[in-house]
């Protein structure tokens, strides 16, 4: 299922990042291949956001190597990430409520001549794109304010695809969505994979992760804490890797009272 | 009325550019029910065809607070009816013709204000800038002997530069626009007094380019009708060409009935106005310039990359920034536009009274310009509005002023009534915004 033999599209090796007194990331590795969904999970403060920012070019690492299709690269800015082919969909969507779906999809890269918009071409491409992804939007000409949360999320994700990326990074795409809407987004993630894109899925929801991910990379306290095959690992195993707990909360409390220095780590 | 595409009888047409207020749904979609029309999600609102469709759509929009220009059009009709009943001179060709010239100066300032409001910001310096620009024009032209055209260009250039300064402090330093332009209002009023010198008033020649801006009328009957004809034909051709392009691209078009209805409404208004203007002195040059400016501004806002950026920044700054839009550049440029339009308005104000004085652009000019934009339907909260609100809003304000002047009502009452109308407009804006939120549309 996962294509370990091929060169990964994106490979991070030994990434470290420090904020003042906090070592946010220590020697973190991550590989993403074409056509696979890698879930990036971890508890709050595990370093997920920092790692996303490293990949998205928002916060370059202090040390470590990033390789894109086998060759070493640096990602100093969001623009550099985009031109490499890394698209990031942030948790807070970043859509303009007052613009319609077409306007949002093409925001910042409108089609046209001499500064005049070509609405017909944009609408056609929007419809084609949404159709390819089997996205159900009532109309591409209504303001996104009137769409449901799930629809807005799918618009945000499909917008990232207009730049023809090879890696799509989704930050908590199903947070705050209902059941049906979450299903829509997960369907979309699977379609991205089937189109040969590498997907990095950041999520707190183990059910979602198990449902669509091929591999699950766990971060704990800024370090790798194992990469699991999603299909052959139980939810409990992943959760214990995330929390560092060997069994359950009760034993963790006991461990803490017995050993104040927290022996449960790693 | 049938869908000319014929591809999906249940999906209504989209409006091509109209800022997507159409409630029709063009994408055959959805999980739908077990019904025969499995392609359509039963929850979706589909506009019916024909007149009933328009009516239903209209009702739905009213309920969800998408009022658009409706309140201002209704308001204008009411105002005209009331004043006409009080004084039969109100709707006389002479009064309407004068009205159409009186709206120009402040209306031009208001066009610039619309751009600023679209960002969700405010420009309090526009009145002072128009006064300063008028002063620069008058002093350069009359005292320094510059040619009128050079003096006008210099006045606009100075004001644009001052707008740039506002934008710089706002976008780069981060001072709230309210404070920057408040400081600007004081400073540029001072500049205006300083440029005018001790006399305080510079008279402009009654003949010549500057005065002719507001005193020229194209009195040939063909001029006004010709303009109306060009406007209607242009609208029709653009609509049909747009429809043809959409059809060939395989995306939904407006129905023919829709196009005909819009063209007909435009034709009635345009030829009606032309008829009235021809009863007096003909088509005023100032009105022609104002209309051209409004149409161009509307085109820039809705149809260009730049306009899209303005709307995006007004809608969600963070989204605009992440989409690669330079927020600072957009902000600075908008304040430059506002400065430039304030200067053009100032030139017309000076032209109208053939002098630039300490009073030019002072008093309530700024408030009128902002009120016009808001009354016309441009939101104070950013991201919603159109250049046409400057025209419609000015018509409302000037109609009130003109009607009260005919009745001999004092200034004090005029101010109070105009204030009440402004408040009503903002209340409508706020309430419609709230019900749009409730209907999930804001």
UniProtKB/TrEMBL annotation, chain A:
Any single Pfam family the record assigns to this protein: ABC_tran
Domain ABC transporter: 10-246
Keywords: ATP-binding, Nucleotide-binding
Record-linked Gene3D superfamilies: P-loop containing nucleotide triphosphate hydrolases (3.40.50.300)
CDD domains: ABC_Carb_Monos_I
InterPro entries linked to this entry: AAA+_ATPase, ABC_carbohydrate_import_ATPase, ABC_transporter-like_ATP-bd, P-loop_NTPase
Protein name: ABC transporter ATP-binding protein
Lineage: Bacteria, Bacillati, Actinomycetota, Actinomycetes, Streptosporangiales
UniProtKB/TrEMBL annotation, chain B:
Mode of membrane association: Multi-pass membrane protein
Principal localisation: membrane
Annotated CDD domains: TM_PBP1_transp_AraH_like (cd06579)
Keywords linked to the UniProt accession: Cell inner membrane, Cell membrane, Membrane, Sugar transport, Transmembrane, Transmembrane helix, Transport
MF term (GO), any: transmembrane transporter activity
Transmembrane segments: 67-87, 99-119, 126-143, 149-171, 178-197, 217-238, 259-277, 283-300, 330-351, 363-381, 388-406, 412-431
InterPro entries with a match to the protein in the record: ABC_transp_permease (IPR001851)
Protein's name according to its UniProt entry: Xylose transport system permease protein XylH
Organism: Planobispora siamensis
């Amino acid at each position: 299922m996962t294509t370990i033999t091929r060169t990964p599209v994106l490979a991070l090796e030994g990434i470290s990042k420090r904020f003042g007194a906090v070592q946010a990331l220590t020697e973190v590795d991550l590989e993403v291949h074409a056509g696979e969904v890698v879930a990036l999970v971890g508890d709050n403060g595990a370093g997920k956001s920092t790692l996303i920012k490293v990949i998205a070019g928002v916060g370059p690492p202090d040390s470590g190597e990033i390789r894109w299709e086998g060759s070493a690269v640096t990602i100093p800015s969001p623009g550099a990430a985009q031109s490499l082919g890394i698209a990031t969909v942030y948790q807070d969507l970043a859509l303009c409520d007052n613009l319609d779906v077409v306007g949002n999809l093409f925001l910042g890269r409108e089609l046209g001549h001499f500064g005049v918009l070509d609405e017909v071409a944009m609408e056609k491409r929007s419809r084609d794109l949404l159709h390819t992804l089997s996205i159900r939007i009532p109309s591409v000409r209504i303001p996104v304010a009137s769409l449901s949360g799930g629809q807005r999320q799918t618009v945000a994700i499909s917008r990232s695809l207009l730049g023809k990326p090879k890696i799509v990074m989704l930050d908590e795409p199903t947070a705050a969505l209902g059941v049906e809407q979450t299903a829509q987004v997960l369907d979309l993630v699977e379609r991205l994979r089937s189109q040969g894109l590498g997907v990095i899925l950041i999520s707190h929801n183990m059910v979602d992760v198990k449902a669509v991910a091929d591999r699950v990379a766990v971060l704990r306290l800024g370090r790798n804490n194992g990469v699991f095959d999603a299909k052959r690992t139980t939810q409990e195993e992943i959760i214990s890797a995330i929390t560092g707990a060997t069994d359950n909360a009760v034993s963790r409390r006991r461990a803490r009272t017995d050993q104040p220095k927290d022996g449960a780590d790693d | 009325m049938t869908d000319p595409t014929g591809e999906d009888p249940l999906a209504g047409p989209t409006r091509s550019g109209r800022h997507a207020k159409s409630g029709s749904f063009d994408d055959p979609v959805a999980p739908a029910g077990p019904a025969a029309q499995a392609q359509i999600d039963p929850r979706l609102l589909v506009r019916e065809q024909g007149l009933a469709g328009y009516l239903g759509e209209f009702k739905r929009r009213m309920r969800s607070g998408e009022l658009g220009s409706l309140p201002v059009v209704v308001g204008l009709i009411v105002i005209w009816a009331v004043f006409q009943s009080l004084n039969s001179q109100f709707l006389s060709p002479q009064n309407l013709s004068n009205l159409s010239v009186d709206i120009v100066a402040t209306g031009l300032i208001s066009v610039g204000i619309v751009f600023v409001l679209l960002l969700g910001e405010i420009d309090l310096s526009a009145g002072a800038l128009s006064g300063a620009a008028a002063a620069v024009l008058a002093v350069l032209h009359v005292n320094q002997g510059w040619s009128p055209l050079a003096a006008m260009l210099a006045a606009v250039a100075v004001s644009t530069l001052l707008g740039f300064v506002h934008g710089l402090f706002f976008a780069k330093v981060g001072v709230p626009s309210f404070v920057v332009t408040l400081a600007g209002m004081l400073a540029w009023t001072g500049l205006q007094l300083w440029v005018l010198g001790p006399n305080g008033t510079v008279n402009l020649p009654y003949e010549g380019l500057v005065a002719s801006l507001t005193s020229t009328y194209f009195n040939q009957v063909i001029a006004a009708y010709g303009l109306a004809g060009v406007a209607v034909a242009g609208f029709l051709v653009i609509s049909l060409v747009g429809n043809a392009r959409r059809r060939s691209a395989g995306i939904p078009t407006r129905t023919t009935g829709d196009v005909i209805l819009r063209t007909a409404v435009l034709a009635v208004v345009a030829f009606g106005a032309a008829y009235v203007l021809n009863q007096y002195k003909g088509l005023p040059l100032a009105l022609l310039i104002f209309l051209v400016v409004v149409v161009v501004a509307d085109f820039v806002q809705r149809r260009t990359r730049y306009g899209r950026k303005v709307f995006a920044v007004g809608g969600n700054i963070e989204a605009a920034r992440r989409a690669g839009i330079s927020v600072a550049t957009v902000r600075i440029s908008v304040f430059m536009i506002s400065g430039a339009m304030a200067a053009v308005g100032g030139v017309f104000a000076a032209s109208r009274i053939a002098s630039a004085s300490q009073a030019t652009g002072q008093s309530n000019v700024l408030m009128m310009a902002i009120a016009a934009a808001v009354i016309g339907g441009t939101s104070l909260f950013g991201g919603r509005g159109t250049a046409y609100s400057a025209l419609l809003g000015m018509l409302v304000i000037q109609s009130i002023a003109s009607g009260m002047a005919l009745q001999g009502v004092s200034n004090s009452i005029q101010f109070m009534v105009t204030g009440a109308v402004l408040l009503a407009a903002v209340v409508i804006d706020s309430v419609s915004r709230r019900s749009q939120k409730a209907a999930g549309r804001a």
